[in-house]
Amino acid sequence: MAGRQHSGVHRLAVVGVGLMGGSLALAARSRAGVEEVVGYDPDVSALNEAFESGVITEKAGSAAEAAAYADLVVVAAPVRSIPELVEECAAAEPRPRLITDLGSTKAAIVEGLSPLARSIFIGGHPMSGGASSGARFARADLFDGTTYFLCTSGGAYPKLYEMLQTFVTEIGARPTHIDAEVHDRMMAAVSHLPHVMANILMEYAGNFEAGGRKAIHWAGPSFKDLTRIAGANPPMWRDIFLENREALAAAVASVSSGLDDFRRYLESADQAEIEKEISSAAALRKELLEHEDIAVATLYKVTARISDKPGELSRVMVALGDASINVEDLTLHHVSRSQGGDLVMYVDGEEVADKTRALLTSLGFATVVDFSGEALG
Amino acid sequence: MAGRQHSGVHRLAVVGVGLMGGSLALAARSRAGVEEVVGYDPDVSALNEAFESGVITEKAGSAAEAAAYADLVVVAAPVRSIPELVEECAAAEPRPRLITDLGSTKAAIVEGLSPLARSIFIGGHPMSGGASSGARFARADLFDGTTYFLCTSGGAYPKLYEMLQTFVTEIGARPTHIDAEVHDRMMAAVSHLPHVMANILMEYAGNFEAGGRKAIHWAGPSFKDLTRIAGANPPMWRDIFLENREALAAAVASVSSGLDDFRRYLESADQAEIEKEISSAAALRKELLEHEDIAVATLYKVTARISDKPGELSRVMVALGDASINVEDLTLHHVSRSQGGDLVMYVDGEEVADKTRALLTSLGFATVVDFSGEALG
Description:
Two copies of one chain form a homodimer. Chain A has 377 residues and is α/β, with parallel strands linked by helices. Chain A folds into three domains: 11-178, 3-Layer(aba) Sandwich (Rossmann fold); 183-269, 6-phosphogluconate dehydrogenase C-terminal like domain (6-phosphogluconate dehydrogenase C-terminal fold), CATH 1.10.3660; 295-371, Alpha-Beta Plaits, CATH 3.30.70. Chain A has 14 helices and 14 strands. An eight-stranded mixed sheet of chain A has the order 3-2-1-4-5-6-7-8, sandwiched between helices. Chain A has a four-stranded antiparallel sheet with strand order 12-13-11-14. In chain A, strand 1, helix 1 and strand 2 (36-40) form a beta-alpha-beta unit. In chain A, helix 7 (158-170) crosses helix 13 (312-322) and helix 8 (180-206) crosses helix 11 (245-267). The longest helix of chain A is centred in the middle third of the chain and has 27 residues, at 180-206. The two termini of chain A are 19 Å apart. In chain A, 55% of the residues are buried. The interface between A and B is large, with 92 and 91 residues.
């Protein structure tokens, strides 16, 4: 890893050695120069399997035992158990440097922590996963190119943020700073709400019979697309829904009211409103597809010279996050202690590149923009 | 086609030469022994293209001109224009023998017809289609293995039903008799409602912003699955929604009320109800997938000897449809005028096969069941 800043994570603790925790352990060792990975799991056979298959290098008898001495503790457990596990890890002696999690919701976790835990906790949420569970499905490349949300709302020291951010970059993901509450509201809209709608549709159509026939026996590809995620992991999703219940209830209420409006258009045979509704969805879907196309078509490379002072990388990332600039990829080429390093970022489109340059220049960093001329691999 | 009953369709009229009408014309000529296909389309360039590419063998200047003399007229037009076109075709001189359509809704079409049109109209709805439109995408195999609903509610003579049913079998589809209103209510549940939900979700999430960020920029695979059909063909879907507005409004109301219940469970943090909702969706989705697996795994062959009297095939199919027996495939091997023919049907699973045999035996047909031992190709 010559020429790159190292995160400083030498000893990693993974609390919960399933698909996510196991993949993170593999990626940390093969890509981020982590030497020791100590694992803990309340399921002893899962823990033994992770150790025997080489996913972790040490076994611990408790979360606290795993966390002691660690540079970074990753709590990879169901969302509702996270706060308690974080507290337990934060109270370990010798205290770990930094604790993060992989939960799909963030605000409730951060809010529930003690001041001690908050000072060494930064929330994380990689937007990757898999249909299978268990360490035996773990893969070092699970996070490749994935948006990896980081929520600093807990009040951890900036240097810790920088450590986590570098680590996330090293394992192949794209760190994106976000406010915990904003994160949860966005996840409610694009992830949790679709799960709720899939469940409700499955339940309605699955129980629908007419003339002695079951409607789902004639389900076509559209119905299957909409219900592919219906009934996904009930205990896990129950907890995600509960943890994010405020934002999710607002999303559900809004969709329900949209359906009520649409029902009224049907009842009054309002052609214009019905067509407007479909056309509006068509325009938004076009926008979604175009955003995806842009992501691979017109990447610009923005290079900023930053000093080696603590918190500099963090300052840049927080500023970019707050300005809603989505960095597609990021690497730090370490030049020298006196000169600092080159932070290389890829962003979508010329406009965003110019905005990034202007922002970084205003923060005092020498910044240049190049057209990358190629899609990221 | 030796050994098979021929539908008796020699001259076919196709009103509307798009993807569906064009595919039906191709399948009719290559598989159903149809010699002449006369086409009409209000779009002259579409009509010329269909003629020049050999999809149709003759061009007509109006729907009535196409329909005159035809054994079978297929109205392949947007749902709301179907009743008027059917009337025009029914009034053609010399009168066509039978008129059918390919519309996604059935009850409103049948209800709106004059007694004359009703006497020679049978509604049809093949559950196939494509993302592309236009005769240049037409394919003779578009209907292969497709459930093809036939609605007799219009009051056409039984012999006409039998002609259409044989024709549908010849082009490769699986005729399924269904009541028009039952058809529409089922399509509301498994097809029209999913479209409405996809549109509403796209509109909600597409407009959702928090902390200056657009939620859809973080849309993952689940969101994309649920919105793949959002915004589909606005004028076409507006008409389908309007034609089926009563059944669809009931479906939308039910889902909206399901969402309201779920919102209340969230607001009161009701763990048990939330998990029950997900588990119930999981069980129904399992049922859906199992139904699909069965369809290819355990087909049984049911052979019934039926006489060559008019209406016999129709009697069998109506009885099977009314008993909710879904015939996966059907062929009629014509033995002789005095002895009748062997009607060979494939059905899902031993239980259904036994039910089919019992039903056909009770109708007076000598019937045998074999395990087919293989999936249909």
